[in-house]
Write a structure and sequence with these properties.
Radius of gyration: 20 Å
Oligomer: single chain
Protein name: MurR/RpiR family transcriptional regulator
Largest sheet: 5 strands, parallel
Strand content: 5-15%
GO molecular function: carbohydrate derivative binding; DNA binding; DNA-binding transcription factor activity
Keywords: DNA-binding, Transcription, Transcription regulation
CATH superfamily of the largest domain: Glucose-6-phosphate isomerase like protein, domain 1
CATH class of the largest domain: Alpha Beta
Pfam families: HTH_6 (PF01418), SIS (PF01380)
CATH architecture of the largest domain: 3-Layer(aba) Sandwich
CATH topology of the largest domain: Rossmann fold
Distance between the termini: 50 Å
């Protein structure tokens, strides 16, 4: 969901339990072909499609209304109302931010528990990404015919910059979008068909990031999204969606899961690109030695 009045990411959600999107993804193998169409329709416009009537959901998925009801039953819900109630609870969690969350007391016990949760967050984030999505994004990023554009939000900008650092060491034509919207408009005008736009957007989702994705898609770019388990509305236009766990026992969300995914992607690119990237890296080091004695 979009919060136009407060476009700041980084507020922690209510709990770390699996989302409905997680349950849908995990259930794919057990669904019929028609039910999988319903699942894909839900994930493509998550959670918006699930908040619509059964008839509208069925129309979007191009299946029958009874198929939608069988689909939600296989997810473990007693009915469509129960399914929508679960979605509403997730949407309420998305609306939380640091002022609404309890703060730790700073004791050794609290710090120790937080430390353990960091490890779990990385493990969960890596488990959430599919090898197919990772390989597909790697294929796009090693194709030097494509220019790469990246954008992070108020909270996720460090993750976008971290990926940009790795990419520009291994290939040319890598750009960070400006946070200043008038300048970003100029940069968006440079996008050509088949270029790649990578966006980072977690709750509370930023409207300018969503609009950037829509414009990039209209210009023919391939859009990749790094988001949280609830998924930014950018997912509606994204070709690749990579989710990370961002919630911890803290008032604040964490970037550690996103950073782990960025570094995993960088390693994947390095493994495929190093024979070519090595020449670029050596050239950079030669210039660096002259510039910084």
């Amino acid at each position: 969901m979009i919060d136009e009045t407060e476009p700041t990411e980084g507020a922690a959600p209510r709990s770390g339990k699996p989302t409905l999107a997680d349950r849908v993804t995990a259930s794919m193998a057990s669904l019929s072909e028609a039910e999988r169409r319903a699942a894909r329709a839900l994930l493509a416009r998550y959670p918006t499609t699930g908040m619509e009537t059964v008839a509208l959901f069925a129309e979007r998925a191009k299946v029958s209304a009874p198929t939608i009801l069988r689909f939600v039953a296989k997810l473990g819900f007693t009915g469509y109302a129960d399914f929508r109630r679960a979605l509403r609870e997730e949407m309420e969690a998305q609306a939380e931010y640091p002022l609404t969350r309890p703060h730790a007391d700073g004791t050794t016990t609290a710090v120790s528990a937080f430390t353990r949760s960091l490890v779990t967050t990385v493990e969960n984030s890596l488990a959430m990404v599919s090898q197919a999505d990772l390989e597909a994004l790697t294929d796009l990023l090693i194709d030097e015919r494509r220019e790469i554009f990246l954008l992070g939000g108020d909270f996720t900008d460090p993750a976008a910059r971290h990926l940009e650092f790795h990419l520009r060491k291994m290939r040319s034509r890598v750009r960070l979008f400006s946070q200043a919207l008038p300048r970003r408009a100029d940069e968006l005008a440079d996008i050509r068909k088949r270029d790649v736009v990578i966006l980072f957007d977690i709750r509370r989702y930023q409207l300018d990031t969503i609009r950037t994705a829509e414009i990039a898609k209209q210009r023919g770019a391939v859009v990749a999204l790094f988001t949280d388990r609830w998924m930014s509305d950018v997912a509606q236009v994204a070709d690749i969606v990579i989710r990370a766990q961002v919630d911890l026992p803290s008032p604040w969300d964490s970037l550690i899961g996103l950073i782990a995914l960025v570094e995993t992607l960088a390693l994947s690119i390095d493994a495929r690109q190093w024979p070519i990237a090595r020449t670029r890296f050596e050239a950079i080091e030669t210039v660096r030695a002259k510039l910084i004695p």
